[in-house]
Amino acid sequence: MAQAAKKKIKLIYWAAKTTLILVALITICFSVILGIMITSYKDSIDISKDIIGTWDCVQFYKNQKSFTVSDNQEITVTIDSGNVKMHGSDNASILRGDHSGTYTIEGGSVLIVKMGEDSWSCSCVFTQDGLLRLTISEMQVVLYLKKR
Amino acid sequence: MKSMRSFLCLVLSCIMTLSLAACGSSTDFKEGIKGTWSLYHYYENAEAGIDVFLDDSNFWTVTVTDNEFTITAKDNAELEENGGTFVWTKADEAEVTYNDGTRCTMRISENSKKHNELGAWDIYVVETNMYYVLEIPQED
Q1: Which of A26, A95, A98, B140 has the fewest CB within 10 Å, making it most exposed?
Q2: Do B130 and A7 touch (CB under 8 A)?
């Protein structure tokens, strides 16, 4: 009887010890993951701030074909707290003239741009070397923009 | 008590082994893509799936290293060399810069081998909506 009770206590002790070790391991792993997540969140790009400024288009895709913006052409996009302006020189391949509108940010990286009666959704991605890739699916246009 | 311990140890070992197996089983595109491949055909407009075949005498050879690639046409009369560099941004996505400065985004996936036994990797160019099939080179 005493033997059985001893065995039971030993089992409970072992189970408690194992559980504690597992909990400690899970806590360490969780803390490491949380630390990495917080660090990457701090380092992550804040679209609402980082897109503000004047951008020169260096390359664009129109209808799945690539075009380089040559030196004598000018295609610029100016983004400033809720307002967006697009300008294309008279000899520009796309976006000739001036276009103005407003934008709101949706889902962290998508701009909903309203220009007159038109509404576009533009997804923003920053490349590794700081270019802004703007994909306007409604127009089948992808712009690679370089900050001025 | 011993059998209980053994059982618990077995359960824990199984969970850890399965977790490790799940981690290790995902395809390593970064390593997989390295090497020399033949490019005989591609799909214009991924959704429409129009097959474009390159002439046997003019197929392309694609050589990929850690962060560079070169594309060489086989036809000596119109030898066309192209290539560039790439940076991985996701496990299956890379930003590509060609030698002439042109940029694009490429996604890689495993070829289903449904249409071609030699197909190894599908390369999807996001901006142009095209699929390129990299195939294992055939022996001459």
Answers
A1: B140
A2: no
Evaluate whether residue B5 is within a structural domain: no
Render each residue's pLDDT in chain B as its tens digit; 140 residues: 567 667 766 776 777 777 767 666 678 999 999 999 998 888 887 776 678 888 777 788 899 999 999 988 877 655 566 899 999 999 999 999 999 889 999 999 999 888 788 899 999 999 998 889 999 987 76
What's the half-sphere exposure (Cβ side, CA atoms, 13 Å) at B114?
Answer: 4
Let me know if residue B33 belongs to a domain: yes
- Number of domain units in chain B: 1
A47-147 under CATH 3.40.30.10, yes or no: no
Beta carbons within 8 Å of A42's beta carbon, 6+ residues apart: none
Distance from CA of A83 to the nearest CA of B (A): 26
Whether B16 is covered by a domain: the verdict is no
- Structural domain of B91: 29-135
Can you read off the two tokens belonging to residue A92? 């520009």
Nearest-10 crossing angle of helices A2-43, B2-24:
20
CA A61 to chain centroid: 20
Residue B7 lies in a domain: no
Q: How far apart, in whole angstroms, are the C-alpha atoms of residue A99 and residue A84?
A: 8
A103-132 pLDDT per residue, tens: 999 988 899 999 989 999 999 999 999 999
Residues of chain A contacting B19 with CB distance shorter than 8 Å: none
Measure CA of the first residue to CA of the last residue in chain A; give whole Å.
85
DSSP letter (8 states) at residue B109: E
Residue of chain B with shortest Cα separation from A145: B103
The 10 Å Cβ neighbour count of residue A143 is: 25
Tens digits of residue pLDDT in A64-99: 888 989 888 999 999 998 999 999 999 988 888 999
